[in-house]
Design a protein that fits this description.
This protein has 2 domains: 2-112, no CATH class; 163-357, Histidine kinase-like ATPase, C-terminal domain (Heat Shock Protein 90), CATH 3.30.565. 69% of the residues lie in helices and 10% in strands. The chain contains 11 helices and 7 strands. It has helices spanning 2-33, 37-67, 74-95, 105-111, 114-182, 184-201, 212-230, 242-247, 254-264, 303-315, 338-357; strands at 210-211, 234-239, 249-250, 274-281, 284-290, 321-324, 328-334. Strands 2-4-5-7-6 form a 5-stranded mixed sheet, covered by helices on one side. A hairpin with a 3-residue loop joins strand 6 and strand 7. It is rod-shaped, with a radius of gyration of 36 Å. The two termini are 34 Å apart.
């Protein structure tokens, strides 16, 4: 990827700069030697060809030295080899047809300004080439850093997801233990429901996001399990348009976790049932319930909501919106767009890395 990209940029630069440099090369010679227009044109074309050869020589030398980059003083060797080959090229083109007595090597550099110009042009080409190579190497390093940050974000997200399943299973087994003692037949139905729920959730284990429709189906299955236990003490309702169900994405077990949180923290009875509503508004899923706050023997550690908030920060950088009131409790999570998600995660990775430096 790196070689092709640099090669294309250098080729484009060589093609549009070579004629311009050739014209600049010929101007002082026209002034000094009073070339005719035809001679000036011929010299310009010849010099353009020489400059293109210099470009090609420097690219070839760069590729050769790159293969042996472990060699000591490889850059110095590259520059020496570049100038040696440029000298040979200009010499063959300019003097290959001249009779031997026409020149002598020591005098040639003093009498012909073409050498000073050719070596100056080679220096300029080396500088331009180095700028392109440095720029490309920087882009490659930045891209590799983005990939590394993305992998780190995925690893953190996987770690957070792995915390969800034991949390959910612990609660489910506690419920099952209570049902076995009090209502064995209901416990049997609950086990069947739990088995189906876990089976449907296995496909989301290794995914960062799932379709909203799949998460809603999973959440409905979860609430049906709870209905077995609480019966008329709990009711729920979903208001999600079918179009939104099919195109939206959310982190796996995100809505289910909010439903579990509502059940965990509220008292419910036939006289005061818990009502949970799942709705959609302006690209956000809202899980809202009436509030009959349960007196907890131990203070809640808030791992559920905190876990979900961290997962959203890793995936998109968006916050989870929590709105508690005296009578209600609601949590809103953003519906994700699968196509834009990868770019969002990249930018979040960069943002988190920058924040970590301060």
């Amino acid at each position: 990827m790196e070689i092709n990209s640099v090669q294309k940029r250098l080729l484009k630069t060589a093609l549009y700069t070579s004629p311009l440099i050739a014209i600049m090369w010929i101007v002082p010679l026209v002034i000094i030697r009073s070339f005719s227009p035809l001679r000036a044109l011929t010299e310009t074309l010849e010099n353009t060809f020489i400059i293109l050869l210099i470009w090609a020589i420097n690219w070839g030398v760069y590729q050769l030295i790159k293969k042996y980059s472990s060699v000591k003083y490889s850059n110095t060797l590259r520059y020496l080899l570049s100038y040696l080959l440029v000298f040979c090229t200009v010499f063959l083109i300019k003097y290959s047809g001249a009779p031997y007595p026409h020149f002598e090597l020591p005098d040639m550099f003093y009498t012909d300004p073409a050498w000073a110009i050719a070596f100056s042009i080679n220096a300029i080409i080396l500088i331009i080439q180095n700028l392109h190579i440095i720029r490309e190497e920087k882009l490659v390093i930045e891209f590799e850093n983005y990939q590394l940050k993305l992998r780190n974000a995925e690893a953190r997200n996987l770690k957070l997801k792995q915390q969800i399943h034991p949390h959910f299973l612990f609660n489910s087994l506690s419920i099952l233990k209570t049902l076995i003692k009090k209502e064995p037949q209901t416990a049997t139905k609950y086990v069947v429901g739990l088995s189906g729920f876990l089976r449907s959730g296995l496909s989301a284990t290794n995914m960062n996001t799932v379709k909203l429709s799949e998460e809603l189906d999973l959440s409905s299955a979860y609430l049906e399990m709870q209905k077995i236990r609480f019966q008329s003490s709990m009711a729920y309702d979903f208001h999600i348009p079918e179009k939104v169900r099919q195109v939206g994405y959310v982190p796996p077990f995100s809505i289910q976790l909010l439903l579990e949180n509502a059940i965990k923290h509220n008292v419910m009875s036939q006289e005061k049932p818990l009502y949970i509503q799942v709705s959609c508004e302006d690209g956000w899923i809202n899980v809202r319930n009436n509030r009959h706050k349960k007196e907890m023997t131990k203070p809640s550690n808030g791992i559920g909501l905190d876990n979900l908030a961290k997962r959203y920060q890793i995936l998109t950088g968006d916050d989870v919106i929590i709105k508690p009131t005296e009578d209600t409790f609601s949590v809103s999570i953003k519906i994700l767009d699968k196509e834009a998600l990868s770019m969002q995660r990249l930018s979040v990775g960069v943002k988190q890395d920058d924040e970590g430096k301060h």
